Protein backbone atom coordinates (compact mmCIF):
# COMPACT_ATOMS: atom_id res chain seq x y z
CA UNK A 1 0.00 0.00 0.00
CA UNK A 2 1.30 3.42 -0.96
CA UNK A 3 0.57 5.95 1.78
CA UNK A 4 0.99 8.87 -0.61
CA UNK A 5 -1.06 11.49 1.28
CA UNK A 6 -2.39 12.12 4.74
CA UNK A 7 -5.90 11.06 3.75
CA UNK A 8 -4.61 7.66 2.57
CA UNK A 9 -4.03 6.71 6.21
CA UNK A 10 -7.81 6.55 6.66
CA UNK A 11 -8.55 5.56 3.06
CA UNK A 12 -9.55 7.61 0.03
CA UNK A 13 -12.26 7.23 -2.61
CA UNK A 14 -13.74 4.26 -0.81
CA UNK A 15 -10.41 2.45 -0.61
CA UNK A 16 -8.93 0.71 2.40
CA UNK A 17 -6.90 2.71 4.89
CA UNK A 18 -3.92 1.61 6.95
CA UNK A 19 -5.96 -0.06 9.71
CA UNK A 20 -8.11 -1.90 7.22
CA UNK A 21 -5.04 -3.25 5.41
CA UNK A 22 -3.47 -4.40 8.67
CA UNK A 23 -6.73 -6.02 9.79
CA UNK A 24 -6.97 -7.82 6.44
CA UNK A 25 -3.37 -8.98 6.82
CA UNK A 26 -4.17 -10.43 10.24
CA UNK A 27 -7.08 -12.34 8.77
CA UNK A 28 -4.98 -13.59 5.89
CA UNK A 29 -2.15 -14.64 8.20
CA UNK A 30 -4.45 -16.88 10.23
CA UNK A 31 -1.89 -17.09 13.01
CA UNK A 32 1.11 -17.70 10.73
CA UNK A 33 3.98 -15.27 9.98
CA UNK A 34 3.08 -12.71 7.32
CA UNK A 35 4.93 -9.72 5.87
CA UNK A 36 2.98 -6.65 4.81
CA UNK A 37 4.55 -3.75 2.89
CA UNK A 38 3.83 -0.02 3.04
CA UNK A 39 5.41 2.82 1.08
CA UNK A 40 5.98 5.95 3.17
CA UNK A 41 5.67 8.67 0.56
CA UNK A 42 4.57 12.18 1.53
CA UNK A 43 7.66 14.29 2.24
CA UNK A 44 7.43 18.08 2.07
CA UNK A 45 8.18 19.17 -1.50
CA UNK A 46 7.95 15.55 -2.60
CA UNK A 47 9.66 14.31 -5.75
CA UNK A 48 11.36 17.57 -6.56
CA UNK A 49 12.55 16.46 -10.01
CA UNK A 50 9.34 14.93 -11.42
CA UNK A 51 6.04 16.74 -11.68
CA UNK A 52 3.91 13.59 -12.06
CA UNK A 53 4.33 12.59 -8.42
CA UNK A 54 4.45 15.93 -6.61
CA UNK A 55 2.66 15.75 -3.27
CA UNK A 56 0.33 17.70 -1.03
CA UNK A 57 2.90 19.21 1.37
CA UNK A 58 4.88 22.34 0.57
CA UNK A 59 8.67 22.51 0.97
CA UNK A 60 8.46 23.90 4.53
CA UNK A 61 5.67 21.65 5.84
CA UNK A 62 7.97 19.40 7.88
CA UNK A 63 5.84 19.92 10.99
CA UNK A 64 2.73 18.65 9.23
CA UNK A 65 4.67 15.70 7.86
CA UNK A 66 5.70 14.71 11.36
CA UNK A 67 2.46 15.30 13.27
CA UNK A 68 -0.23 14.67 10.65
CA UNK A 69 1.45 11.90 8.67
CA UNK A 70 4.22 9.94 10.40
CA UNK A 71 2.82 10.14 13.95
CA UNK A 72 -0.61 8.69 13.00
CA UNK A 73 1.05 5.93 10.96
CA UNK A 74 3.32 5.00 13.86
CA UNK A 75 0.37 5.07 16.26
CA UNK A 76 -1.64 2.63 14.15
CA UNK A 77 1.29 0.29 13.49
CA UNK A 78 2.10 0.20 17.21
CA UNK A 79 -1.28 -1.33 18.11
CA UNK A 80 -0.58 -4.54 20.02
CA UNK A 81 -3.00 -6.52 17.89
CA UNK A 82 -0.62 -6.15 14.93
CA UNK A 83 2.44 -7.38 16.83
CA UNK A 84 2.47 -10.70 14.98
CA UNK A 85 2.77 -9.01 11.58
CA UNK A 86 6.10 -8.19 9.98
CA UNK A 87 5.62 -4.64 8.73
CA UNK A 88 8.04 -3.49 6.02
CA UNK A 89 8.20 0.25 5.39
CA UNK A 90 9.71 1.57 2.16
CA UNK A 91 10.99 5.02 3.09
CA UNK A 92 10.38 7.94 0.72
CA UNK A 93 11.24 6.85 -2.84
CA UNK A 94 13.44 9.19 -4.89
CA UNK A 95 13.96 11.75 -2.12
CA UNK A 96 17.59 11.27 -1.08
CA UNK A 97 18.75 10.33 -4.61
CA UNK A 98 17.31 13.65 -5.80
CA UNK A 99 19.43 15.50 -3.26
CA UNK A 100 22.48 13.71 -4.63
CA UNK A 101 22.03 14.36 -8.34
CA UNK A 102 19.38 17.02 -8.96
CA UNK A 103 19.98 19.74 -6.36
CA UNK A 104 22.60 21.78 -8.20
CA UNK A 105 25.55 21.57 -10.56
CA UNK A 106 24.07 19.07 -13.03
CA UNK A 107 22.07 19.34 -16.23
CA UNK A 108 19.12 17.67 -14.51
CA UNK A 109 19.08 19.94 -11.46
CA UNK A 110 15.88 21.75 -10.51
CA UNK A 111 15.17 24.73 -8.29
CA UNK A 112 12.77 22.58 -6.28
CA UNK A 113 15.50 20.05 -5.45
CA UNK A 114 17.92 22.85 -4.59
CA UNK A 115 15.32 24.19 -2.16
CA UNK A 116 14.91 20.82 -0.46
CA UNK A 117 18.66 20.37 -0.15
CA UNK A 118 19.02 23.84 1.35
CA UNK A 119 16.23 23.48 3.91
CA UNK A 120 17.15 19.91 4.88
CA UNK A 121 13.55 18.75 5.12
CA UNK A 122 14.06 15.58 3.09
CA UNK A 123 16.77 14.46 5.50
CA UNK A 124 14.81 15.60 8.55
CA UNK A 125 11.69 13.84 7.32
CA UNK A 126 13.45 10.58 6.49
CA UNK A 127 15.21 10.64 9.85
CA UNK A 128 11.95 11.30 11.68
CA UNK A 129 10.20 8.45 9.88
CA UNK A 130 13.07 6.06 10.63
CA UNK A 131 13.12 7.08 14.29
CA UNK A 132 9.37 6.76 14.88
CA UNK A 133 8.80 3.61 12.86
CA UNK A 134 12.09 2.02 13.86
CA UNK A 135 11.05 2.15 17.51
CA UNK A 136 8.39 -0.50 16.85
CA UNK A 137 9.62 -4.07 17.39
CA UNK A 138 7.90 -5.58 14.34
CA UNK A 139 8.71 -2.93 11.73
CA UNK A 140 11.53 -3.08 9.19
CA UNK A 141 12.61 0.11 7.43
CA UNK A 142 14.17 0.09 3.96
CA UNK A 143 15.45 3.40 2.55
CA UNK A 144 15.01 4.00 -1.16
CA UNK A 145 18.31 3.91 -3.07
CA UNK A 146 17.17 4.69 -6.64
CA UNK A 147 18.55 2.33 -9.30
CA UNK A 148 21.76 1.60 -11.18
CA UNK A 149 20.95 3.93 -14.07
CA UNK A 150 20.56 6.82 -11.63
CA UNK A 151 23.35 6.34 -9.10
CA UNK A 152 25.63 3.78 -10.75
CA UNK A 153 28.46 6.16 -11.62
CA UNK A 154 31.12 6.65 -8.93
CA UNK A 155 30.40 10.38 -8.96
CA UNK A 156 26.86 9.59 -7.76
CA UNK A 157 27.37 6.26 -5.98
CA UNK A 158 29.66 7.43 -3.19
CA UNK A 159 27.92 10.78 -2.47
CA UNK A 160 24.56 8.98 -2.38
CA UNK A 161 25.80 6.55 0.25
CA UNK A 162 26.98 9.49 2.36
CA UNK A 163 23.61 11.19 1.90
CA UNK A 164 21.83 8.05 3.09
CA UNK A 165 23.99 7.96 6.21
CA UNK A 166 23.33 11.64 6.92
CA UNK A 167 19.56 11.15 6.72
CA UNK A 168 19.68 7.92 8.73
CA UNK A 169 21.33 9.79 11.61
CA UNK A 170 19.01 12.82 11.53
CA UNK A 171 16.03 13.72 13.74
CA UNK A 172 16.90 11.16 16.40
CA UNK A 173 17.35 8.21 14.03
CA UNK A 174 20.34 5.88 14.10
CA UNK A 175 21.62 3.21 11.74
CA UNK A 176 19.89 0.68 13.99
CA UNK A 177 16.57 1.97 12.64
CA UNK A 178 17.55 0.83 9.14
CA UNK A 179 16.91 -2.77 8.13
CA UNK A 180 18.26 -2.14 4.66
CA UNK A 181 17.74 -0.40 1.33
CA UNK A 182 15.63 -0.91 -1.75
CA UNK A 183 16.55 -0.37 -5.39
CA UNK A 184 14.46 -0.04 -8.54
CA UNK A 185 11.34 1.15 -6.70
CA UNK A 186 8.64 1.68 -9.34
CA UNK A 187 11.31 1.47 -12.04
CA UNK A 188 12.11 -0.80 -14.96
CA UNK A 189 15.84 -1.58 -14.72
CA UNK A 190 16.65 -5.20 -15.51
CA UNK A 191 17.44 -7.46 -12.57
CA UNK A 192 20.31 -8.99 -14.54
CA UNK A 193 21.54 -8.57 -18.09
CA UNK A 194 22.26 -12.17 -19.12
CA UNK A 195 24.01 -11.48 -22.42
CA UNK A 196 26.59 -8.84 -21.57
CA UNK A 197 28.63 -7.70 -18.55
CA UNK A 198 30.11 -4.35 -17.66
CA UNK A 199 33.57 -5.90 -18.02
CA UNK A 200 32.99 -6.96 -21.65
CA UNK A 201 34.78 -5.30 -24.54
CA UNK A 202 34.32 -5.37 -28.30
CA UNK A 203 37.35 -5.00 -30.55
CA UNK A 204 39.26 -3.51 -27.63
CA UNK A 205 36.54 -1.03 -26.64
CA UNK A 206 34.82 -1.43 -23.28
CA UNK A 207 31.02 -1.69 -23.26
CA UNK A 208 31.05 1.18 -20.79
CA UNK A 209 31.65 3.40 -23.82
CA UNK A 210 28.40 2.31 -25.44
CA UNK A 211 25.60 4.85 -25.63
CA UNK A 212 23.37 2.65 -23.47
CA UNK A 213 25.84 2.11 -20.62
CA UNK A 214 27.32 5.61 -20.91
CA UNK A 215 30.30 4.93 -18.62
CA UNK A 216 28.12 3.53 -15.83
CA UNK A 217 29.83 1.07 -13.49
CA UNK A 218 26.77 -1.23 -13.49
CA UNK A 219 24.44 -2.61 -16.13
CA UNK A 220 21.76 -4.18 -13.94
CA UNK A 221 20.11 -3.99 -10.53
CA UNK A 222 21.50 -7.08 -8.84
CA UNK A 223 25.14 -6.07 -9.27
CA UNK A 224 24.32 -2.49 -8.24
CA UNK A 225 22.37 -3.51 -5.14
CA UNK A 226 25.07 -5.89 -3.94
CA UNK A 227 27.85 -3.34 -4.48
CA UNK A 228 25.85 -0.59 -2.79
CA UNK A 229 25.30 -2.79 0.24
CA UNK A 230 29.06 -3.29 0.55
CA UNK A 231 29.64 0.47 0.31
CA UNK A 232 26.98 1.25 2.91
CA UNK A 233 28.41 -1.20 5.41
CA UNK A 234 31.88 0.26 4.86
CA UNK A 235 30.72 3.77 5.87
CA UNK A 236 28.88 2.79 9.04
CA UNK A 237 25.64 0.95 8.40
CA UNK A 238 25.19 -2.34 10.23
CA UNK A 239 26.78 -5.38 8.61
CA UNK A 240 23.43 -7.18 8.73
CA UNK A 241 21.59 -4.80 6.41
CA UNK A 242 19.93 -6.35 3.39
CA UNK A 243 18.67 -5.13 0.06
CA UNK A 244 15.28 -5.34 -1.61
CA UNK A 245 14.83 -5.07 -5.38
CA UNK A 246 11.49 -4.12 -6.91
CA UNK A 247 10.89 -6.65 -9.68
CA UNK A 248 7.27 -5.78 -10.37
CA UNK A 249 7.92 -4.37 -13.86
CA UNK A 250 11.44 -5.28 -14.97
CA UNK A 251 10.88 -8.66 -16.63
CA UNK A 252 11.27 -7.50 -20.25
CA UNK A 253 9.93 -10.69 -21.81
CA UNK A 254 7.80 -11.15 -24.91
CA UNK A 255 8.89 -11.45 -28.51
CA UNK A 256 11.39 -8.57 -28.29
CA UNK A 257 13.50 -10.31 -25.63
CA UNK A 258 16.94 -11.33 -26.98
CA UNK A 259 17.99 -14.96 -26.84
CA UNK A 260 21.73 -14.35 -27.01
CA UNK A 261 24.48 -11.73 -27.25
CA UNK A 262 24.42 -8.98 -29.84
CA UNK A 263 26.73 -8.94 -32.84
CA UNK A 264 30.31 -7.87 -32.17
CA UNK A 265 30.40 -5.25 -34.91
CA UNK A 266 30.94 -2.51 -32.33
CA UNK A 267 30.02 -1.86 -28.70
CA UNK A 268 26.66 -0.28 -29.49
CA UNK A 269 25.58 -3.15 -31.75
CA UNK A 270 26.74 -5.65 -29.14
CA UNK A 271 24.97 -3.99 -26.21
CA UNK A 272 21.77 -3.05 -28.03
CA UNK A 273 21.45 -6.47 -29.61
CA UNK A 274 21.90 -8.31 -26.33
CA UNK A 275 20.27 -6.13 -23.69
CA UNK A 276 16.91 -7.29 -22.37
CA UNK A 277 16.00 -3.80 -21.09
CA UNK A 278 14.47 -2.38 -24.25
CA UNK A 279 13.84 1.17 -23.13
CA UNK A 280 14.97 3.89 -25.51
CA UNK A 281 17.10 5.34 -22.69
CA UNK A 282 17.82 4.01 -19.20
CA UNK A 283 16.61 7.31 -17.76
CA UNK A 284 13.06 6.77 -19.03
CA UNK A 285 10.78 6.01 -16.09
CA UNK A 286 7.15 6.63 -17.00
CA UNK A 287 4.76 3.88 -18.19
CA UNK A 288 7.38 2.22 -20.35
CA UNK A 289 6.28 0.50 -23.53
CA UNK A 290 7.41 -3.12 -23.81
CA UNK A 291 7.94 -3.73 -20.10
CA UNK A 292 6.79 -6.90 -18.37
CA UNK A 293 6.27 -8.28 -14.89
CA UNK A 294 9.56 -9.54 -13.46
CA UNK A 295 10.66 -12.14 -10.94
CA UNK A 296 7.98 -13.19 -8.49
CA UNK A 297 8.47 -12.05 -4.88
CA UNK A 298 11.16 -14.28 -3.37
CA UNK A 299 12.93 -14.25 -0.01
CA UNK A 300 16.75 -14.32 0.13
CA UNK A 301 17.29 -15.00 -3.59
CA UNK A 302 20.95 -13.88 -3.70
CA UNK A 303 23.72 -13.00 -1.21
CA UNK A 304 22.97 -9.69 0.47
CA UNK A 305 19.46 -9.52 -1.01
CA UNK A 306 16.64 -9.86 1.51
CA UNK A 307 13.99 -10.25 -1.18
CA UNK A 308 12.70 -9.52 -4.61
CA UNK A 309 9.48 -7.61 -3.96
CA UNK A 310 6.62 -6.04 -5.89
CA UNK A 311 6.51 -2.52 -4.49
CA UNK A 312 4.87 -0.77 -7.44
CA UNK A 313 1.59 -2.62 -8.10
CA UNK A 314 1.64 -3.74 -11.75
CA UNK A 315 -0.99 -1.75 -13.62
CA UNK A 316 -0.77 1.44 -11.58
CA UNK A 317 0.21 4.43 -13.69
CA UNK A 318 3.44 6.38 -13.23
CA UNK A 319 1.84 9.61 -14.40
CA UNK A 320 -0.59 11.07 -16.92
CA UNK A 321 0.27 11.45 -20.59
CA UNK A 322 -1.58 14.79 -20.66
CA UNK A 323 -2.44 17.36 -18.01
CA UNK A 324 -5.33 16.21 -15.77
CA UNK A 325 -6.86 18.44 -13.10
CA UNK A 326 -6.70 16.86 -9.62
CA UNK A 327 -6.66 17.70 -5.91
CA UNK A 328 -3.63 15.52 -5.08
CA UNK A 329 -0.87 17.93 -6.10
CA UNK A 330 0.12 15.72 -9.05
CA UNK A 331 1.36 17.67 -12.04
CA UNK A 332 1.94 16.83 -15.69
CA UNK A 333 5.45 15.62 -16.42
CA UNK A 334 6.43 15.56 -20.09
CA UNK A 335 8.38 12.35 -19.43
CA UNK A 336 4.95 10.67 -19.39
CA UNK A 337 4.07 12.14 -22.79
CA UNK A 338 4.88 9.75 -25.66
CA UNK A 339 5.32 12.69 -28.05
CA UNK A 340 7.98 14.42 -25.92
CA UNK A 341 11.50 14.35 -27.33
CA UNK A 342 13.28 14.37 -23.98
CA UNK A 343 15.60 16.45 -21.81
CA UNK A 344 19.06 16.33 -20.28
CA UNK A 345 18.16 13.49 -17.92
CA UNK A 346 17.32 11.08 -20.72
CA UNK A 347 19.85 12.31 -23.25
CA UNK A 348 17.17 14.17 -25.22
CA UNK A 349 15.59 10.92 -26.35
CA UNK A 350 11.90 10.03 -26.79
CA UNK A 351 10.24 8.98 -23.55
CA UNK A 352 8.99 5.54 -24.58
CA UNK A 353 5.86 6.18 -22.51
CA UNK A 354 2.55 4.54 -23.33
CA UNK A 355 -0.25 6.86 -24.53
CA UNK A 356 -3.52 7.66 -22.77
CA UNK A 357 -2.22 7.13 -19.24
CA UNK A 358 -4.08 8.35 -16.12
CA UNK A 359 -2.70 10.12 -13.05
CA UNK A 360 0.11 8.49 -11.08
CA UNK A 361 -1.25 5.71 -8.90
CA UNK A 362 -4.46 5.25 -10.86
CA UNK A 363 -5.32 2.06 -12.74
CA UNK A 364 -3.91 1.84 -16.26
CA UNK A 365 -5.48 -1.19 -17.91
CA UNK A 366 -3.50 -1.03 -21.16
CA UNK A 367 -0.22 -1.09 -19.26
CA UNK A 368 -1.37 -3.98 -17.08
CA UNK A 369 -2.22 -6.10 -20.12
CA UNK A 370 1.20 -5.36 -21.63
CA UNK A 371 2.96 -6.23 -18.36
CA UNK A 372 1.17 -9.59 -18.33
CA UNK A 373 1.99 -10.25 -21.98
CA UNK A 374 5.69 -9.43 -21.54
CA UNK A 375 6.20 -11.07 -18.14
CA UNK A 376 9.53 -12.84 -17.60
CA UNK A 377 9.58 -15.46 -16.28
CA UNK A 378 6.37 -15.94 -18.27
CA UNK A 379 3.12 -16.22 -16.36
CA UNK A 380 1.46 -19.61 -16.65
Could you outline the blueprint of secondary structure elements for this entry?
Elements: E1 2-3, H1 18-29, E2 34-40, H2 62-77, E3 85-91, H3 95-101, H4 111-119, H5 121-134, E4 139-144, H6 148-151, H7 154-168, E5 180-183, E6 201-202, E7 205-206, H8 221-234, E8 242-246, H9 267-274, E9 298-302, E10 305-309, H10 365-373
Parallel strand pairs: 1-2, 2-3, 3-4, 4-5, 5-8, 8-10
Antiparallel strand pairs: 6-7, 9-10
Tally the beta strands. 10
Low-confidence stretches: none
- Rg value: 20 Å
Number of domains: 1
CATH class: Alpha Beta
CATH homologous superfamily classification? 1, 4-beta cellobiohydrolase
The proportion of residues forming helix, as a percent range, comes to: 25-40%
If classified by CATH, what would the architecture be? Alpha-Beta Barrel
**Average pLDDT:** 97
List the helices and strands in order: EHEHEHHHEHHEEEHEHEEH
Strands of the biggest beta sheet: in what spatial order? 1-2-3-4-5-8-10-9
Strand content: 5-15%
Classify the fold: give the CATH topology.
Answer: TIM Barrel
Largest sheet: 8 strands, mixed
Our measurement of the CA-to-CA distance between the termini, rounded to an integer number of angstroms, reads 26 Å
How many separate helices?
10
SS content category: alpha/beta
Overall outline: globular
Amino acid sequence: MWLDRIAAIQGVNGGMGLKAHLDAALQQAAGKPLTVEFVIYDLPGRDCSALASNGELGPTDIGRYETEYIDPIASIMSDAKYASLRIVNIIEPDSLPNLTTNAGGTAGSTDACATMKANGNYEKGVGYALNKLGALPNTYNYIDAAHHAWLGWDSNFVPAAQEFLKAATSSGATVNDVQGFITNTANYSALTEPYFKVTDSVNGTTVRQSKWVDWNDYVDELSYAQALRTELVSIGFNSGIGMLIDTSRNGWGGTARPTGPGATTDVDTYVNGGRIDKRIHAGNWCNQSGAGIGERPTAAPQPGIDAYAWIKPPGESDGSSTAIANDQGKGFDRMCDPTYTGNARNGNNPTGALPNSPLAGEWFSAQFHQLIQNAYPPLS
